[in-house]
Write a structure and sequence with these properties.
It contains four helices and two strands; from the N terminus they run αααβαβ. It has a two-stranded antiparallel ribbon with strand order 1-2. The protein is mainly alpha-helical. The two termini are 24 Å apart.
Length: 122
């Protein structure tokens, strides 16, 4: 949870900083549209490209964890990382629904990717 909080904070802060840089003099609605796009864009780059290129994000790196394929501990592939990112975007809004249904949802091993400690990969 801590690594997700760090990664989410990075996405929000960087997305808002981009919006301030790009749409500072625009109307209220345009600014927030650019901010939402910036947050999603930074989140995509951070979570998808970070996982594919480095096997980690900043939050996971700080906590010594990596993202690997569940079946062979290999580097995540691009489209799996995209599906994992999209699944992660639905996690918070869908938790009340899954709790009402009495289930955990598809999040534990979403898209065949797992988090592991860095030292376990050696």
């Amino acid at each position: 949870m801590l690594s997700a909080g760090i990664d989410g904070t990075i996405a929000v802060v960087a997305g808002l900083a981009l919006a301030l840089r790009i749409a500072d003099d625009k109307s209220f609605g345009v600014f927030w549209a650019v901010a939402a796009g910036g947050v999603l864009g930074v989140s995509f780059v951070h979570h998808v490209l970070g996982a594919v290129l480095f096997r980690t994000t900043v939050g996971k790196f700080l906590l010594f964890t990596r993202v690997v394929r569940a079946e062979d501990s290999g580097r995540p592939r691009f489209w799996r990382a995209v599906r994992r990112w999209l699944l992660g975007l639905t996690w918070l809004p869908m938790m009340p629904v899954w709790n009402l249904l009495g289930e955990d949802g598809p999040y534990e091993d979403g898209c065949g990717l797992r988090y592991v400690r860095s030292k376990d990969l050696r």
